[in-house]
Amino acid sequence: MTRSDTIEAGRPEAAPKPVGAPAVSGGLNPRLTRRLLITAIQVALLVAGLAAWEYFAGKPGEPHVLIDQYYVSKPSLIWEAMGLWVSQNLLWPSLWVTLQTTVIGFVLGALAGLVAGFVLGVSPFLAAVCQPFVDAIYAIPRLALVPLFMLWFGIGIGSKLALVISVVAFLVFYSTYAGVKDVDHLLVDKLRLMRASRLQVHLKATLPSAMTFIISGLSVSAPYALVVAVTAEMMSSNRGLGYLLVQSANQFDTAGTFAAIFVLMIVGIALMLLIRLMEMWLLRWKPKRPTGRA
Amino acid sequence: MSSIGTSTERASAAAAQADDRPIAVSYHQVGRTFTTAKRTFTAVQGIDLEIRKGEFICIIGPSGCGKSTLLNMAAGLLTQSTGEVLYDGKPINGINNDVGYVTQKDTLLPWRTVEKNVSLPLEVQKVPRRERKERVAQVLDLVGLGQYGNRYPSQLSGGMLKRAALAQTLVYRPNTLLMDEPFGALDAQLRLNLQRQTLEIWERERKTVLFVTHDLEEAILMADRVVVFGANPGRIIHVEPITFARPRDFGSLRTDPEFAAVWSRLWALLSPQMEDH
Ligand SMILES: Nc1ncnc2c1ncn2[C@@H]1O[C@H](COP(=O)(O)OP(=O)(O)OP(=O)(O)O)[C@@H](O)[C@H]1O
Ligand SMILES: [Mg+2]
């Protein structure tokens, strides 16, 4: 009795309801409330940033101008520049060219790296033979190959694809190789005891087990594919977003430069989201990290 | 002393009786050493054991005495250093895929659901999908995992994982079953159920079973012969034929004075081995 009395007595003081707490009160799920709050703050920050940029950037000497728009442009001008590209039928074709180079190069490079990494991963002898050559080629700064690729594949998409492939293939190769090496031998033995053929062992144990590594190789190399495609376009091209970027810069068209960068950012984000979705689907068996941060 | 004498007599009697069955697995003077960075270490030595087709053998002994080593050899996952290991009269060369092996650290494929894991051996053997589904459902019910077919291994408890691994081996009906402490992590009730089920399956299909356990009672309840291991180095110190009639009723067996006699006889052999450790 006495004990329960103390507990009863202690309760009202011990847990005073925080009056101002935004969560729970509306009957909303606290997680959702938190998420909404975060989004709201993010949107507010973005709008504030853009507004400040628009307000303080401009021609020097004009009222409330702090930064010369020659260096940083301003949102309205960037928007105009994009509108101009659309009306000149420049934006979509350029975007299309860059996307093609990035995606085709990425897919071909990833396939090449995957196959090579897998084959060398399951045959130590071949791996031992090839290793110094692979490492040596990997050590070449890939941009140094641009002149050769131009010589071999011309100024068009071919030389850009070659460059993207040469970058992506190695990244995916190394991660696939590591993944295949990392396979749990208990699983391989288990499959073999079940009378699995070599091919079945690889398909049902080695490959899925390497998937975590392969995915991380893919998600690292996807942004690289875009970077390399754009770099190649900037170095030598007459098409693509990289070309558009360099053109604008050469004409001291800061708004155009920013517009190109902005489009590239959108493309980069889309690419990352795609990879993340693929990752979530392929690795759906992974134990979920405990959620609910403090 | 006298008790050991009687058990030897009984052993020869049982051996004479069972002589007509062909030998499934045999170990002749088998030894195995492991070389680590610092030293060479004898895990087992001088193992002589012949297991007849359809026999249920339980192996019991202190930790580290080479029980798993023995099973690994039968599965062809490990080679012996000395002596020979025969399966169906032939030396084992590479993986022996006539056996099903529930290993001690058995692992499921983490990216497959329980159902998919259990159906894996059937997929490998190209069993048609319909039959696969049926057999998987049946065996999952048997081990009490009927409700959990859609879960991934990371979402199961330790005991459930063990049972899933067991189901994965039972489902493809291998000729010989190697089971390394398959019921180790389970609670008493589940354990009893699975012991019963395992014996039922065995009585129906008469597979050869090599069953490692730490539980002397389990060994006596289930086995045709209990093989007692000693340590340092790992070796067989005694083989006890268990002659209780089958099918066995666990309840009445436990209270049988003969059961108690066998138990204490084997315990007398085992306990000093355990203490050494
Ligand atoms: N790959 C290995 N390398 C070195 N030593 C090993 C290896 N495998 C087993 N051993 C040693 O051989 C001995 C027998 O091992 P084993 O796994 O067969 O024991 P066990 O009887 O199954 O023990 P437990 O009951 O604990 O499972 C142990 O002392 C172990 O340390
Ligand atoms: Mg063991």
TrEMBL record, chain A:
It is found in: Cell membrane. Residues 1-11 have a biased composition (Basic and acidic residues). PROSITE patterns: ABC_TM1. Keywords: Cell membrane, Membrane, Transmembrane, Transmembrane helix, Transport. Pfam families: BPD_transp_1 (PF00528). The keyword DNA repair does not apply. It is a multi-pass membrane protein. InterPro entries: MetI-like. The chain crosses the membrane at residues 36-56, 77-97, 103-129, 161-180, 201-226, 258-278. Residues 91-275 form the ABC transmembrane type-1 domain. Residues 1-22 are annotated as: Disordered. Belongs to the binding-protein-dependent transport system permease family. This is ABC transporter permease.
Automatic annotation (TrEMBL), chain B:
Coiled coil: none annotated. One of its GO terms (molecular function) is ATP binding. Keywords: ATP-binding, Nucleotide-binding, Transport. Residues 25-256 form the ABC transporter domain. It comes from the Bacteria. PANTHER family: ALIPHATIC SULFONATES IMPORT ATP-BINDING PROTEIN SSUB (PTHR42788:SF13), TAURINE IMPORT ATP-BINDING PROTEIN-RELATED (PTHR42788). This is ABC transporter ATP-binding protein.
